[in-house]
Protein backbone atom coordinates (compact mmCIF):
# COMPACT_ATOMS: atom_id res chain seq x y z
CA UNK A 1 0.00 0.00 0.00
CA UNK A 2 1.51 3.33 -1.03
CA UNK A 3 1.62 6.34 1.25
CA UNK A 4 -1.78 7.97 0.65
CA UNK A 5 -1.72 10.31 3.66
CA UNK A 6 -4.74 11.36 5.70
CA UNK A 7 -7.11 13.78 4.01
CA UNK A 8 -7.24 17.18 5.72
CA UNK A 9 -3.94 16.70 7.55
CA UNK A 10 -0.22 16.51 6.87
CA UNK A 11 2.88 15.30 8.64
CA UNK A 12 5.31 18.12 9.38
CA UNK A 13 8.30 19.09 11.51
CA UNK A 14 6.89 20.75 14.64
CA UNK A 15 9.26 23.38 16.13
CA UNK A 16 10.83 21.96 19.30
CA UNK A 17 8.75 18.77 19.17
CA UNK A 18 10.03 16.80 16.20
CA UNK A 19 7.54 15.36 13.75
CA UNK A 20 3.86 16.06 14.25
CA UNK A 21 0.49 16.33 12.54
CA UNK A 22 -1.21 19.54 11.41
CA UNK A 23 -4.47 20.46 9.75
CA UNK A 24 -4.65 21.67 6.16
CA UNK A 25 -8.38 22.44 6.43
CA UNK A 26 -10.88 23.51 9.08
CA UNK A 27 -12.34 20.94 11.50
CA UNK A 28 -15.42 21.73 13.60
CA UNK A 29 -15.94 20.55 17.19
CA UNK A 30 -17.10 16.93 17.07
CA UNK A 31 -15.86 16.33 13.53
CA UNK A 32 -13.90 13.16 12.77
CA UNK A 33 -10.34 14.18 11.86
CA UNK A 34 -9.29 10.64 10.97
CA UNK A 35 -9.74 6.98 11.91
CA UNK A 36 -6.90 4.49 12.29
CA UNK A 37 -7.21 0.70 12.48
CA UNK A 38 -4.87 -0.93 14.98
CA UNK A 39 -1.60 -2.18 13.51
CA UNK A 40 -1.73 -4.86 16.20
CA UNK A 41 -3.78 -5.30 19.37
CA UNK A 42 -4.61 -7.69 22.19
CA UNK A 43 -7.66 -8.08 24.44
CA UNK A 44 -6.89 -7.88 28.14
CA UNK A 45 -7.19 -11.20 30.00
CA UNK A 46 -9.84 -9.83 32.39
CA UNK A 47 -12.29 -9.19 29.52
CA UNK A 48 -12.10 -12.67 28.02
CA UNK A 49 -15.59 -14.10 27.63
CA UNK A 50 -17.16 -10.62 27.64
CA UNK A 51 -15.57 -9.26 24.43
CA UNK A 52 -14.65 -10.86 21.12
CA UNK A 53 -10.90 -11.41 20.88
CA UNK A 54 -10.89 -10.24 17.25
CA UNK A 55 -13.29 -7.28 16.98
CA UNK A 56 -13.74 -6.39 20.69
CA UNK A 57 -17.54 -6.54 20.38
CA UNK A 58 -19.22 -6.82 23.78
CA UNK A 59 -21.88 -9.53 23.82
CA UNK A 60 -23.21 -12.42 25.93
CA UNK A 61 -23.29 -15.19 23.32
CA UNK A 62 -19.60 -15.55 22.39
CA UNK A 63 -18.15 -19.00 21.75
CA UNK A 64 -14.70 -20.13 22.81
CA UNK A 65 -11.67 -21.42 20.95
CA UNK A 66 -11.86 -25.21 20.90
CA UNK A 67 -8.12 -25.59 21.55
CA UNK A 68 -7.17 -23.24 24.41
CA UNK A 69 -10.78 -22.66 25.57
CA UNK A 70 -9.77 -19.18 26.73
CA UNK A 71 -10.27 -16.94 23.70
CA UNK A 72 -13.85 -16.05 22.74
CA UNK A 73 -15.31 -14.98 19.40
CA UNK A 74 -18.52 -13.64 17.85
CA UNK A 75 -18.51 -16.26 15.10
CA UNK A 76 -16.33 -18.37 12.82
CA UNK A 77 -15.37 -15.32 10.71
CA UNK A 78 -13.94 -13.53 13.77
CA UNK A 79 -12.11 -16.67 14.85
CA UNK A 80 -10.57 -17.12 11.40
CA UNK A 81 -9.69 -13.45 11.24
CA UNK A 82 -7.79 -13.69 14.51
CA UNK A 83 -6.17 -17.09 14.01
CA UNK A 84 -2.84 -15.92 12.56
CA UNK A 85 -2.36 -13.72 15.66
CA UNK A 86 -3.97 -16.07 18.18
CA UNK A 87 -2.21 -19.27 17.04
CA UNK A 88 1.15 -18.83 18.87
CA UNK A 89 -0.65 -17.65 22.01
CA UNK A 90 -3.12 -20.52 21.76
CA UNK A 91 -0.29 -23.06 21.52
CA UNK A 92 1.58 -21.39 24.40
CA UNK A 93 -1.53 -21.38 26.63
CA UNK A 94 -2.12 -25.06 25.92
CA UNK A 95 1.53 -25.86 26.67
CA UNK A 96 1.81 -23.86 29.91
CA UNK A 97 -1.74 -24.24 31.27
CA UNK A 98 -2.14 -22.36 34.56
CA UNK A 99 1.52 -21.27 34.41
CA UNK A 100 0.89 -19.09 31.33
CA UNK A 101 1.22 -15.51 32.59
CA UNK A 102 2.99 -13.08 30.23
CA UNK A 103 2.22 -9.39 30.69
CA UNK A 104 -0.12 -7.63 28.28
CA UNK A 105 2.88 -5.82 26.77
CA UNK A 106 4.59 -9.15 26.07
CA UNK A 107 1.42 -10.48 24.43
CA UNK A 108 1.14 -7.36 22.26
CA UNK A 109 4.80 -7.49 21.20
CA UNK A 110 4.41 -11.16 20.27
CA UNK A 111 1.52 -10.19 17.99
CA UNK A 112 3.54 -7.34 16.46
CA UNK A 113 6.34 -9.80 15.66
CA UNK A 114 3.81 -12.12 13.98
CA UNK A 115 2.34 -9.20 12.02
CA UNK A 116 5.77 -8.08 10.83
CA UNK A 117 6.47 -11.58 9.51
CA UNK A 118 3.48 -11.49 7.16
CA UNK A 119 3.45 -7.76 6.33
CA UNK A 120 5.86 -6.33 3.80
CA UNK A 121 3.99 -3.20 2.68
CA UNK A 122 2.81 -0.08 4.48
CA UNK A 123 -0.42 -0.92 6.34
CA UNK A 124 -3.64 1.18 6.56
CA UNK A 125 -2.56 2.21 10.07
CA UNK A 126 0.74 3.64 8.77
CA UNK A 127 -0.40 6.23 6.24
CA UNK A 128 1.84 8.91 7.78
CA UNK A 129 4.09 7.11 10.27
CA UNK A 130 5.61 3.64 10.08
CA UNK A 131 5.79 1.53 13.22
CA UNK A 132 9.53 1.14 12.72
CA UNK A 133 9.84 4.95 12.95
CA UNK A 134 8.60 4.95 16.56
CA UNK A 135 10.95 6.59 19.04
CA UNK A 136 12.42 4.13 21.55
CA UNK A 137 14.33 6.59 23.81
CA UNK A 138 16.64 3.77 24.92
CA UNK A 139 19.32 6.31 25.84
CA UNK A 140 16.95 8.00 28.30
CA UNK A 141 15.77 4.88 30.17
CA UNK A 142 16.78 4.53 33.80
CA UNK A 143 17.88 1.25 35.36
CA UNK A 144 14.39 0.45 36.63
CA UNK A 145 12.83 0.81 33.18
CA UNK A 146 15.68 -1.17 31.65
CA UNK A 147 15.10 -4.01 34.15
CA UNK A 148 11.37 -4.09 33.35
CA UNK A 149 12.21 -4.15 29.65
CA UNK A 150 14.62 -7.04 30.14
CA UNK A 151 12.06 -8.95 32.23
CA UNK A 152 9.50 -8.60 29.41
CA UNK A 153 12.09 -9.70 26.89
CA UNK A 154 12.87 -12.81 28.97
CA UNK A 155 9.14 -13.56 29.33
CA UNK A 156 8.66 -13.34 25.55
CA UNK A 157 11.40 -15.92 25.02
CA UNK A 158 10.08 -18.12 27.83
CA UNK A 159 6.46 -18.27 26.67
CA UNK A 160 6.76 -17.89 22.90
CA UNK A 161 10.16 -19.16 21.68
CA UNK A 162 8.74 -22.59 20.81
CA UNK A 163 5.73 -21.11 19.02
CA UNK A 164 7.19 -18.16 17.05
CA UNK A 165 10.03 -18.98 14.69
CA UNK A 166 12.96 -16.60 14.19
CA UNK A 167 12.27 -14.22 17.06
CA UNK A 168 14.27 -10.99 16.47
CA UNK A 169 17.68 -10.61 18.15
CA UNK A 170 18.00 -9.11 21.62
CA UNK A 171 18.85 -5.57 20.48
CA UNK A 172 15.87 -5.46 18.09
CA UNK A 173 13.54 -6.83 20.79
CA UNK A 174 14.83 -4.35 23.38
CA UNK A 175 14.10 -1.53 20.96
CA UNK A 176 10.65 -2.91 20.07
CA UNK A 177 9.59 -3.18 23.72
CA UNK A 178 10.77 0.39 24.35
CA UNK A 179 8.89 1.60 21.25
CA UNK A 180 5.68 -0.08 22.39
CA UNK A 181 5.99 1.21 25.95
CA UNK A 182 6.40 4.78 24.67
CA UNK A 183 3.88 4.66 21.78
CA UNK A 184 1.28 2.07 22.78
CA UNK A 185 -2.36 2.84 23.57
CA UNK A 186 -4.87 1.35 25.98
CA UNK A 187 -8.28 0.70 24.44
CA UNK A 188 -11.08 1.64 26.86
CA UNK A 189 -14.87 1.36 26.87
CA UNK A 190 -17.41 4.13 27.53
CA UNK A 191 -16.79 3.97 31.31
CA UNK A 192 -13.00 4.01 30.75
CA UNK A 193 -12.63 0.35 31.76
CA UNK A 194 -9.50 -1.20 30.26
CA UNK A 195 -10.25 -3.49 27.30
CA UNK A 196 -6.83 -4.06 25.79
CA UNK A 197 -3.60 -2.67 24.35
CA UNK A 198 -2.74 -1.67 20.80
CA UNK A 199 -0.42 0.28 18.53
CA UNK A 200 -1.86 2.90 16.17
CA UNK A 201 1.10 4.41 14.29
CA UNK A 202 -0.74 7.36 12.72
CA UNK A 203 -2.32 8.29 16.07
CA UNK A 204 1.12 8.11 17.70
CA UNK A 205 2.31 10.81 15.26
CA UNK A 206 0.34 13.47 17.17
CA UNK A 207 2.20 15.47 19.79
CA UNK A 208 0.94 16.09 23.32
CA UNK A 209 -0.75 19.14 24.82
CA UNK A 210 -2.39 19.56 28.23
CA UNK A 211 -5.01 21.58 26.34
CA UNK A 212 -5.62 19.16 23.42
CA UNK A 213 -7.72 20.03 20.39
CA UNK A 214 -8.59 16.39 19.60
CA UNK A 215 -9.57 13.34 21.60
CA UNK A 216 -9.03 9.65 20.82
CA UNK A 217 -11.85 7.13 21.30
CA UNK A 218 -12.32 3.58 20.07
CA UNK A 219 -14.81 1.79 17.88
CA UNK A 220 -13.86 -1.84 18.35
CA UNK A 221 -10.17 -1.99 17.39
CA UNK A 222 -10.25 1.24 15.38
CA UNK A 223 -9.05 4.50 16.95
CA UNK A 224 -11.11 7.57 16.05
CA UNK A 225 -9.66 11.07 16.42
CA UNK A 226 -12.24 13.86 16.83
CA UNK A 227 -11.90 17.61 17.23
CA UNK A 228 -12.84 18.95 20.67
CA UNK A 229 -11.88 22.51 19.74
CA UNK A 230 -12.16 24.41 16.46
CA UNK A 231 -9.10 23.53 14.36
CA UNK A 232 -8.00 25.88 11.57
CA UNK A 233 -5.71 25.25 8.58
CA UNK A 234 -2.10 25.34 9.78
CA UNK A 235 -2.94 24.44 13.39
CA UNK A 236 -1.00 21.56 14.90
CA UNK A 237 -3.24 18.69 16.02
CA UNK A 238 -2.62 17.77 19.66
CA UNK A 239 -4.03 15.01 21.83
CA UNK A 240 -3.21 14.30 25.47
CA UNK A 241 -0.94 11.44 26.51
CA UNK A 242 -1.93 11.55 30.19
CA UNK A 243 -4.80 12.13 32.62
CA UNK A 244 -5.25 15.90 32.73
CA UNK A 245 -6.67 16.05 36.26
CA UNK A 246 -3.39 16.87 38.00
CA UNK A 247 -1.55 20.20 38.53
CA UNK A 248 1.26 21.33 36.24
CA UNK A 249 4.29 19.97 38.11
CA UNK A 250 2.64 16.57 38.52
CA UNK A 251 1.74 16.40 34.80
CA UNK A 252 5.28 17.40 33.85
CA UNK A 253 6.74 14.66 36.05
CA UNK A 254 4.44 12.05 34.50
CA UNK A 255 5.28 13.13 30.95
CA UNK A 256 9.02 13.21 31.61
CA UNK A 257 8.92 9.79 33.29
CA UNK A 258 6.84 8.04 30.62
CA UNK A 259 7.53 9.99 27.42
CA UNK A 260 10.88 11.68 28.09
CA UNK A 261 10.00 15.30 27.33
CA UNK A 262 9.23 18.48 29.28
CA UNK A 263 5.85 19.89 28.31
CA UNK A 264 5.84 23.58 27.31
CA UNK A 265 2.16 23.84 26.28
CA UNK A 266 0.12 26.97 27.16
CA UNK A 267 -1.53 25.15 30.08
CA UNK A 268 1.90 24.30 31.54
CA UNK A 269 3.30 27.79 31.06
CA UNK A 270 0.25 29.69 32.40
CA UNK A 271 -0.66 27.12 35.11
CA UNK A 272 -4.15 28.63 34.87
CA UNK A 273 -5.94 25.76 36.61
CA UNK A 274 -3.41 24.97 39.31
CA UNK A 275 -4.97 27.12 42.05
CA UNK A 276 -8.37 25.44 41.70
CA UNK A 277 -6.80 21.98 41.40
CA UNK A 278 -4.77 22.52 44.58
CA UNK A 279 -7.60 24.08 46.64
CA UNK A 280 -6.67 24.29 50.32
CA UNK A 281 -9.23 23.89 53.10
CA UNK A 282 -10.28 27.21 54.67
CA UNK A 283 -8.67 27.17 58.12
CA UNK A 284 -8.31 29.81 60.85
CA UNK A 285 -4.54 29.40 60.53
CA UNK A 286 -3.53 28.74 56.86
CA UNK A 287 -0.94 25.97 56.37
CA UNK A 288 2.65 26.90 55.59
CA UNK A 289 3.97 26.21 52.04
CA UNK A 290 6.19 23.47 53.48
CA UNK A 291 3.17 21.72 55.00
CA UNK A 292 1.38 21.81 51.66
CA UNK A 293 4.41 20.39 49.84
CA UNK A 294 4.71 17.65 52.46
CA UNK A 295 1.05 16.71 51.92
CA UNK A 296 1.54 16.65 48.14
CA UNK A 297 4.43 14.22 48.62
CA UNK A 298 2.22 12.09 50.89
CA UNK A 299 -0.56 12.14 48.25
CA UNK A 300 1.79 11.02 45.48
CA UNK A 301 3.19 8.25 47.68
CA UNK A 302 -0.24 6.96 48.66
CA UNK A 303 -1.37 6.98 45.00
CA UNK A 304 1.61 4.79 44.11
CA UNK A 305 1.11 2.60 47.20
CA UNK A 306 -2.56 2.09 46.28
CA UNK A 307 -1.62 1.12 42.72
CA UNK A 308 0.66 -1.61 44.07
CA UNK A 309 -1.76 -2.65 46.86
CA UNK A 310 -4.48 -3.49 44.32
CA UNK A 311 -2.58 -6.68 43.57
CA UNK A 312 -2.53 -8.08 47.09
CA UNK A 313 -5.01 -6.32 49.43
CA UNK A 314 -8.68 -7.22 49.86
CA UNK A 315 -11.38 -4.74 48.68
CA UNK A 316 -12.22 -3.81 52.28
CA UNK A 317 -8.53 -3.12 53.00
CA UNK A 318 -8.30 -0.98 49.86
CA UNK A 319 -11.39 0.97 50.87
CA UNK A 320 -9.93 1.58 54.32
CA UNK A 321 -6.72 2.78 52.70
CA UNK A 322 -8.72 5.28 50.60
CA UNK A 323 -10.66 6.53 53.61
CA UNK A 324 -7.59 6.95 55.81
CA UNK A 325 -5.72 8.85 53.09
CA UNK A 326 -8.71 11.18 52.56
CA UNK A 327 -8.89 11.80 56.30
CA UNK A 328 -5.21 12.72 56.47
CA UNK A 329 -5.19 14.87 53.32
CA UNK A 330 -8.49 16.49 54.35
CA UNK A 331 -6.70 18.24 57.21
CA UNK A 332 -5.18 20.54 54.58
CA UNK A 333 -6.80 19.83 51.20
CA UNK A 334 -10.37 20.86 50.26
CA UNK A 335 -12.67 18.13 48.90
CA UNK A 336 -12.23 19.62 45.42
CA UNK A 337 -8.43 19.19 45.57
CA UNK A 338 -7.37 16.77 42.81
CA UNK A 339 -5.47 14.47 45.17
CA UNK A 340 -8.60 14.10 47.32
CA UNK A 341 -10.60 13.45 44.15
CA UNK A 342 -8.11 10.79 43.07
CA UNK A 343 -8.63 8.79 46.27
CA UNK A 344 -12.41 9.32 46.10
CA UNK A 345 -12.36 7.91 42.57
CA UNK A 346 -10.39 4.87 43.74
CA UNK A 347 -12.84 4.41 46.63
CA UNK A 348 -15.75 4.61 44.19
CA UNK A 349 -14.17 1.88 42.07
CA UNK A 350 -13.76 -0.37 45.13
CA UNK A 351 -17.40 0.26 46.13
CA UNK A 352 -18.56 -0.69 42.63
CA UNK A 353 -16.50 -3.89 42.82
CA UNK A 354 -18.03 -4.70 46.22
CA UNK A 355 -21.52 -3.86 44.85
CA UNK A 356 -21.90 -1.15 47.49
CA UNK A 357 -24.05 0.98 45.19
CA UNK A 358 -24.91 3.63 47.78
CA UNK A 359 -21.24 4.08 48.69
CA UNK A 360 -20.24 4.36 45.02
CA UNK A 361 -23.02 6.89 44.38
CA UNK A 362 -21.96 8.98 47.37
CA UNK A 363 -18.40 9.24 46.05
CA UNK A 364 -19.58 9.91 42.50
CA UNK A 365 -21.71 12.83 43.69
CA UNK A 366 -18.69 14.40 45.40
CA UNK A 367 -16.50 13.94 42.33
CA UNK A 368 -18.64 15.06 39.40
CA UNK A 369 -18.76 18.85 39.88
CA UNK A 370 -15.02 19.33 40.57
CA UNK A 371 -14.29 17.05 37.58
CA UNK A 372 -16.38 19.37 35.38
CA UNK A 373 -14.20 22.31 36.52
CA UNK A 374 -10.77 20.66 36.38
CA UNK A 375 -11.07 18.79 33.07
CA UNK A 376 -11.45 20.31 29.57
CA UNK A 377 -14.95 20.91 28.19
CA UNK A 378 -15.24 17.59 26.32
CA UNK A 379 -13.64 15.10 28.68
CA UNK A 380 -13.98 11.32 28.64
CA UNK A 381 -13.40 11.35 32.40
CA UNK A 382 -16.37 13.65 32.97
CA UNK A 383 -18.58 11.73 30.52
CA UNK A 384 -17.74 8.38 32.14
CA UNK A 385 -18.47 9.76 35.61
CA UNK A 386 -21.91 11.05 34.52
CA UNK A 387 -22.49 7.65 32.89
CA UNK A 388 -21.56 5.70 36.03
CA UNK A 389 -23.68 7.99 38.19
CA UNK A 390 -26.64 7.80 35.81
CA UNK A 391 -26.56 4.01 35.79
CA UNK A 392 -26.21 3.92 39.57
CA UNK A 393 -29.19 6.24 40.01
CA UNK A 394 -31.34 4.10 37.71
CA UNK A 395 -30.26 0.93 39.53
CA UNK A 396 -31.31 2.58 42.80
CA UNK A 397 -34.64 3.61 41.21
CA UNK A 398 -33.83 7.32 41.20
CA UNK A 399 -35.13 7.75 37.67
CA UNK A 400 -35.14 11.57 37.33
CA UNK A 401 -31.54 11.94 38.51
CA UNK A 402 -30.49 8.94 36.41
CA UNK A 403 -31.91 10.33 33.17
CA UNK A 404 -30.42 13.77 33.89
CA UNK A 405 -26.94 12.33 34.42
CA UNK A 406 -27.17 10.12 31.31
CA UNK A 407 -28.18 13.13 29.21
CA UNK A 408 -25.12 15.03 30.43
CA UNK A 409 -22.92 12.05 29.51
CA UNK A 410 -24.60 11.84 26.12
CA UNK A 411 -23.98 15.54 25.34
CA UNK A 412 -20.23 14.98 25.78
CA UNK A 413 -20.14 11.58 24.06
CA UNK A 414 -21.85 12.85 20.91
CA UNK A 415 -18.79 15.09 20.46
CA UNK A 416 -16.05 12.71 21.67
CA UNK A 417 -17.41 9.47 20.15
CA UNK A 418 -19.58 10.77 17.32
CA UNK A 419 -23.36 10.53 17.03
CA UNK A 420 -23.23 7.19 15.20
CA UNK A 421 -21.13 5.33 17.81
CA UNK A 422 -22.70 2.21 19.35
CA UNK A 423 -21.91 3.50 22.86
CA UNK A 424 -23.96 6.63 22.10
CA UNK A 425 -26.80 4.45 20.78
CA UNK A 426 -26.69 2.39 24.01
CA UNK A 427 -26.99 5.48 26.21
CA UNK A 428 -29.87 6.78 24.09
CA UNK A 429 -31.66 3.44 24.54
CA UNK A 430 -31.14 3.62 28.32
CA UNK A 431 -32.74 7.07 28.35
CA UNK A 432 -35.63 5.96 26.11
CA UNK A 433 -36.30 2.95 28.35
CA UNK A 434 -37.13 5.32 31.22
CA UNK A 435 -40.00 7.01 29.34
TrEMBL record:
Database matches in SUPFAM superfamilies: SET domain (SSF82199), TPR-like (SSF48452)
Keyword terms of this UniProt record: Chromatin regulator, Cytoplasm, Metal-binding, Methyltransferase, Nucleus, S-adenosyl-L-methionine, Transcription, Transcription regulation, Transferase, Zinc, Zinc-finger
InterPro entries (UniProt xref): H3K4_H4K5_MeTrfase, SET_dom, SET_dom_sf, TPR-like_helical_dom_sf, Znf_MYND
GO cellular component: cytosol; nucleus
Listed name of the protein: [histone H3]-lysine(4) N-trimethyltransferase
Primary enzyme class: transferase
Cytoplasm keyword on record: yes
Physiological role: Protein-lysine N-methyltransferase that methylates both histones and non-histone proteins, including p53/TP53 and RB1. Specifically trimethylates histone H3 'Lys-4' (H3K4me3) in vivo. The activity requires interaction with HSP90alpha. Shows even higher methyltransferase activity on p53/TP53. Monomethylates 'Lys-370' of p53/TP53, leading to decreased DNA-binding activity and subsequent transcriptional regulation activity of p53/TP53. Monomethylates RB1 at 'Lys-860'.
GO terms, biological process: methylation
Pfam families in UniProt: SET, zf-MYND
EC number: 2.1.1.354
MF term (GO), any: zinc ion binding
Domain of life per record: Eukaryota
Amino acid sequence: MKNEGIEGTERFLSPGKGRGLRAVRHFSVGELVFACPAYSYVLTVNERGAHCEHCFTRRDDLFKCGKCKQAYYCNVDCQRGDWSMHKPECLAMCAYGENWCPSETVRLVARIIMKQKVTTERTPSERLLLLREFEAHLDKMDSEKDELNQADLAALHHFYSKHISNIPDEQSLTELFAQVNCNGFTIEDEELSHLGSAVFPDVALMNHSCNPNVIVTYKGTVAEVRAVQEINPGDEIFDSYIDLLYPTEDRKERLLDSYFFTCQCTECTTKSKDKAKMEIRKLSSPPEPGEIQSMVRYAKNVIEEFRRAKHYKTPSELLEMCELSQEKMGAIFADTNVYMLHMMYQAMGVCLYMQDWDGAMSYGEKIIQPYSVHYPAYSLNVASMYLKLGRLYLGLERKTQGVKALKKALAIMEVTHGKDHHYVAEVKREIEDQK
